[in-house]
Design a protein that fits this description.
By secondary structure, the protein is mainly alpha-helical. It is 68% helix and 0% strand. The chain is built from 6 helices and no strands. Helix 1 packs across helix 2, helix 1 packs across helix 3 and helix 4 packs across helix 5. The longest helix is centred in the N-terminal third of the chain and has 19 residues.
Amino acid sequence: MVHEREHLIRRAVQRVIRALADEQHTVGAGGLFELAYPLVAADVPDASAEEIRAAFASAWDIAPVNRALYEQVLAVCDRHWPGENETIDQILHRASRGGDVEAMYLLALVKSAH
């Protein structure tokens, strides 16, 4: 039963992503997820926000252990109003230059990983 529920949620998320992604330009979590959440919840009314976020991560092949980091990066991007063609790296650099300590930390983390 749990597997079937996860499948229903994942299928609803994939359908919504296909329908909305072409018109959605916001990089961060405040964009596509907020638009899609009510539509997914309409398909699976008792789905929690956590279950839907997990399905989103799965749809984009984000491993569960990396999901928190991705969400943190996207939250920083959302705070700094990304431009339509701006990459995540460009947004983080701009945010860092503007004094965003979290953006500075994330950029340092990326540098130390390379």
